[in-house]
Pyrroline-5-carboxylate reductase
Amino acid sequence: MKTIDAILFVGLGNMAGAILDGWLASGLEPGRFSAIDPGRESAPDGVTLLPEAPAQGEFDLVMFGVKPQLLDAVAPTVEHVVGPETVLMSMLAGAPVSTLREHFPRAGAFVRLMPNLAAAIGASPCGLWSDDLDDETRAGITRLVDRLGSAEWLESEELFHPFTALAGSGPGYVYRFIETLARAGADVGLDPGQAERMAVQMVEGAARLAAGAKASPGELARRVASPGGTTQAGLDVLDDGDAMRTLMRECLQAARDRSVEMAGKSSKDG
Ligand SMILES: NC(=O)C1=CN([C@@H]2O[C@H](COP(=O)(O)OP(=O)(O)OC[C@H]3O[C@@H](n4cnc5c(N)ncnc54)[C@H](OP(=O)(O)O)[C@@H]3O)[C@@H](O)[C@H]2O)C=CC1
Ligand SMILES: O=C(O)[C@@H]1CCC=N1
């Protein structure tokens, strides 16, 4: 397969827009990118916004980024630009390669990607899976996706379900945690605006520290908690009856199960 130069985004919403922003911020040339999204009036400087897929020509990579429910309707409108030299990359939750293959039978290769919104700042773990890439193209995809954070190749497509639950949906849980923490801060006496600012900054600082530390998050929690001190009093509430562990397991199970359910619905042979 030839090198990946021309990239077409099909759907440029929240997630695909974050990926484009991340690639541009990492220094990729805007002229490499085109996008189709009827809901957008503009694209970043230098990126070509198309009303529809060109009648002729093929792209090296087509990044499919519409809502999963729109796959059946949108795929036929762009299939003609997905040829044997095209990598079809899909970020759709719960759309297996078997389904993508039915929609894009001429594609040279298929890659599933599971990013999160932090791709915009080059800080997203990105799940990847493919069963038909040659080594050179796989290395090219890895370099491209590493610009968004880190390329994490998964050993089986089934692992996309738990990966999506943790890393794709994860920012949603963290934002809910921050929101709830800020509200609790106001409940215990802080000004609400100040509590929200502090909650965001505290989570950012704690995450950056954990990302650069040799110690595990569990060990870091122990370092914060002085025996008999304030942190231990708070942790005792979270740990009582394994409350937090149970909540997070149920949270991830629900997200994983939904991904499995979506895959069953979108797969024609599932
Ligand atoms: N949001 C996230 O954090 C993550 C999302 N994903 C996946 O990314 C995909 C997109 O999600 P998200 O970005 O949140 O959704 P959005 O709705 O923000 O983005 C989808 C975009 O596709 C556009 N669109 C609709 N019809 C067409 C069409 N015919 N041709 C081209 N574009 C079209 C929509 O326009 P309009 O709004 O006008 O309909 C919208 O801008 C999903 O499949 C999801 O599973 C994966 C990981 C994380
Ligand atoms: O909620 C969703 O279905 C998508 C996939 C992961 C994040 N957002």
Residues 180 and 255 are 20 Å apart (CA to CA).
